[in-house]
Amino acid sequence: MPEFREMAKVTLFGSGNKGGAKFTPAKDIPSLADKVVLITGAAGDLGRQTAIELAKYGRPARIYVADLPRGDVEKKAVIERITREAYEQEKDATTPRTEVRFLDLDLTSFDSVRACAAEFVAKEERLDILFLNAGIIRVAKGTTKEGYEVHFGLNYLGHALLAKLLIPTLEKTAPAASKPRVVVVSSEGHAMAPKGGIQFDNLKGECAAMDYSQRYGQSKLALIHLTRHLSTLHPSLTTAAVHPGRILTGMADALKKESLLVKLTAPIAPFFCVPVSVGIINHLWAATSPDVVSGSYYEPVGVPGKESALARDEALGKRLVEWTEEQVKDVKPLA
Ligand SMILES: NC(=O)c1ccc[n+]([C@@H]2O[C@H](COP(=O)([O-])OP(=O)(O)OC[C@H]3O[C@@H](n4cnc5c(N)ncnc54)[C@H](OP(=O)(O)O)[C@@H]3O)[C@@H](O)[C@H]2O)c1
């Protein structure tokens, strides 16, 4: 029953995409010529569409799709789909196009996160926009390779480590005209975190006493704190956390397989959801708008101040930073 109550609260009374800034990709994405972008989870719906719109309108030099390892044929298919959808309507093939590349990344493994960052810095001198977008919501309990609760380990800790490893490259890029950005994809679901926000004593393990919405919620709450922390520690960067809205994506499909409640409510879900093309507007706004205030959390589109009290709790944020540093202290920095 708590599962139903929390899900219904977010589904029926969540903020959705209800206004805020007007942002039209074709008009508002500036030129990203020569820039380099990395998007985690860009084989999935929101990440892929973000890559398509950026390639189509901003045309950065390269976009890296960092996602779960797969065969060469599947990787090629991801790259070709983004390229095709970005440029299929274009008659003038002389305008420079974005090159899309695939990077293996399994956020449930410190080794994989480090290898992904190492591969990236071996290839690139700069990073202009980093999207920490990949994410899961799962009913089934589980842990990551290092033994952390799987939502927390993947959605938060894997991304916190990736950001830490890539910060030197982002900072190196900072003298450029516009500040490099880190867009952290959180969720209005951060409000479903358990009492106290983050149960530090249970993060090693399955957090078995929590329902999945609380496990997801605490990981997304932690991402808002990560955004603020990165902003404070690295003023040469612009960081923003976003909730994309409610969108029927691969995440919902995965949940349908595991949750009877989600399966039963599937027929009415479209009434509460927006299409993927709308669901990525907050991503794009946060990555390019001059109005972004670093360290903030935004609901769609560009609406600040909607985070929970726990997301503003400075003592919780400080404890999270200390806890995180302790967990990743043995991961070797990149040479
Ligand atoms: N859809 C919504 O209504 C909604 C609402 C609020 C927030 N969000 C957030 O938006 C983000 C994007 O989600 P989406 O809706 O686009 O879902 P999606 O279509 O399922 O995309 C998620 C992506 O993350 C990848 N991923 C899963 N496990 C991974 C791992 N261990 N390492 C690296 N990548 C991994 C997935 O890869 P595979 O496809 O290969 O599994 C997929 O490409 C998530 O952070 C989600 O929490 C979504």
UniProtKB/TrEMBL annotation:
It holds the Pfam family adh_short. It comes from the Eukaryota. The lineage of its organism: Eukaryota, Fungi, Dikarya, Ascomycota, Pezizomycotina. It comes from Paraphaeosphaeria sporulosa. One of its GO terms (molecular function) is oxidoreductase activity. PROSITE patterns: ADH_SHORT (PS00061). This is NAD(P)-binding protein. InterPro entries: NAD(P)-bd_dom_sf (IPR036291), Sc_DH/Rdtase_CS (IPR020904), SDR_fam (IPR002347). Keywords: NADP, Oxidoreductase.
